[in-house]
């Protein structure tokens, strides 16, 4: 089963992308596709549309468009729920020790990684970022 992750601009900027990818591979995820992408404002607004009424929305869009993110299609048994478990809570202050966000997040906003939160969203996000993936058997 596939899931979708984005190593966010803060982690790329801090030079942590390789360490995060190595951690994910060490947890049994196989890398199936990857792209470095600077989201447009419209893409970031669409991606996080569920949060558009929240007070942090403008700041989140500014952050997510501030630099490139590394978008990953990752395969593993139980990929969606297992990835959510090992990235840790949204706020690093609340994240379990050893999770990606506990290790690498700078704040609740600049929190190093996104992971799809349901199989439906994972499929939608993989198709969005890797539209050629059908050809590659994704
Ligand atoms: P993601 O959707 O990026 O995988 P998540 O599912 O853990 O993260 P969401 O509640 O969906 O968390 O929030 C989306 C993103 O918005 C968070 O990852 C974080 O970057 C930002 N965010 C969420 N809550 C806050 C907040 N209270 N203040 C600032 N930024 C926030
Ligand atoms: Mg979310």
Task: Provide a compact summary of the structure.
This protein is of the alpha+beta class and 138 residues long. It has helices at residues 9-13, 17-26, 41-47, 57-64, 79-87, 100-104, 119-129, and strands at residues 2-7, 30-37, 69-75, 113-115. The chain has a single domain (2-132), classed as 2-Layer Sandwich (Alpha-Beta Plaits).
Quick tags:
138 residues; alpha+beta; Alpha-Beta Plaits; four-stranded antiparallel β-sheet; 4 strands; 40% helix; binds magnesium ion
In the predicted model, the low-confidence regions spanning at least 5 consecutive residues are: none
CATH topology: Alpha-Beta Plaits
Helices, by number, come to 7
What is the SS-derived class? alpha+beta
Kindly, what is the distance between the CA atoms of the first and last residues, rounded to a whole number of angstroms?
10 Å
Report the radius of gyration as a whole number of Å: 14 Å
Number of domains: 1
As a percent range, the share of strand residues is: 15-25%
Largest sheet: 4 strands, antiparallel
Order of helices and strands: EHHEHHEHHEH
The CATH homologous superfamily = Nucleoside diphosphate kinase-like domain
Helix content: 25-40%
Report the CATH architecture.
2-Layer Sandwich
Number of strands: 4
Using the coordinates above, name the CATH class: Alpha Beta
Mean pLDDT: 97
Enumerate the distinct ligands. Answer: adenosine-5'-triphosphate, magnesium ion
Strand arrangement in the largest pleated sheet: 2-3-1-4
Anisotropy-based shape: globular
């Amino acid at each position: 089963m596939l899931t979708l992750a984005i190593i966010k601009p803060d982690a790329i900027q801090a030079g942590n992308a390789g360490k995060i990818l190595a951690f994910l591979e060490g947890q049994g995820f196989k890398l199936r596709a990857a792209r470095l992408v600077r989201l447009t404002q419209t893409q970031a607004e669409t991606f996080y549309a569920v949060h558009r009424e929240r007070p942090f929305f403008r700041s989140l869009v500014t952050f997510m468009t501030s630099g490139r993110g590394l978008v990953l299609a990752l395969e593993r048994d139980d990929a969606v729920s297992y990835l959510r478990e090992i990235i840790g809570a949204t706020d690093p202050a609340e994240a379990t020790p050893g999770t990606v966000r506990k290790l690498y997040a700078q704040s609740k906003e600049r929190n190093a990684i996104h992971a799809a939160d349901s199989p439906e969203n994972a499929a939608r996000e993989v198709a969005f970022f890797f539209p050629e993936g059908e050809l590659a058997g994704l």
